[in-house]
Specification:
Protocatechuate 4,5-dioxygenase, Chain B, Dna Ligase, domain 1, single chain, 12 helices, alpha+beta, globular, 422 residues, 6-stranded mixed β-sheet, 3 domains
Amino acid sequence: MSLVYSVFVPHPPILVPEIGRGEERKCQASLDAYQEIARRLVQAEVETVILVSPHAPFAKEGITLLTEEVVRGNFAQFGAEQVSLSFASDPMIIALFQKHLAGNFSVQGPIDHGALVPLYFLQKAGWNGKVVLLGMPLEQPEEYGLRMGEVLDKLPGRYALVASGDMSHRLKEDGPYGLDPAGPEFDQFVVKALQRDPKKIVNIPVDLVERAGECGYRSLRLALAAKEGAPEVLSYEGPFGVGYLIADLYHSSPLPQWARRCLRAYLQKDDPSRPDLPDLSSSAFGMQRGCFVTLKQNGHLRGCIGTTEPWQENIALEIQHNAVAAGTQDPRFRPVRIDELDSLSFTVDVLGELEKIAGPEELDPWRYGVVVRQRGKSGLLLPHLEGVDTVSDQISIAKQKAGISAEDPVELWRFEVKRHYE
């Protein structure tokens, strides 16, 4: 099944109740989000966690890899020696990383607190799988993330990537490193970019990063590169002068997997009626919604067809119809061949209800898609598209798709979208 989850979490020991002794309640948003992210990983039946920590031993160039058969550690340095953790490592993943990650260095020793804190919350949630611990790379985090994702995607197991790191340590005068205006600026830039355009995170000026005094920027970049997703910020706060961010960066969805199955069955000329339908009693497949199925090849669009409102009795059939259409009927592209399927990525955008609006001021190209209508003509544009940064751009492109003149007035409708990745 490959990489099924990727998350970014902080590592303040004070969140551990045995250490915080009540002070952790000042970080209630972080506690709640940590418990939720741990619950999601347990529910996803993750077998092995690959954990990248900025406090593990690191190399000036390259990446370190803990090669112990059992990884263990405790919180003795924070006055809670009784809180100890122990997990089996995953020798198969370690061997593959040693083979495929350039400049890797084997290290041994106890788990550092950058790994202990997230593992503490995972264990509390009932998880007891295997752990592979890496030190945060100082150079080329995207290259390491991309390579790790490629390695994991070829495997049959269920893996999660947990990127550990705190945001700025310079948010308050009474914080551990005082206040620097770059601290709040850096943190808010990252939070906003995750909510809108994660690709911008890699372009934060070096001077701003250094002045912010963070310890998770590279871990975050590595995790974002491992697998494209629709990041969800669960919480952000900085009550002690250090920024704590918890975000769901990527998780695997059955919807695009089903879309792939449907297109494959069609191209293989299987029973034309339908493949075996998924469980329609589940919330994922039982609803009625319009949706778009998008195919990409090497990051470039290869086909996209969808419905703004449901035409089928459930979304499983809606996806089936649109997946086949995206692969074979998009007039902008030649039909997909069966030997291309493995090189394609699938996403499914599930549309919310259409809502008529009074004017452009009620649009946001990152949150809402738009439908323009005029005398029987209609054009639709999905939200969160690369290169579409303004409302005027959004409306202009939707008008072009509908064949409506740029100067002509139109009725405007908006809708929200949830994007699902394989």
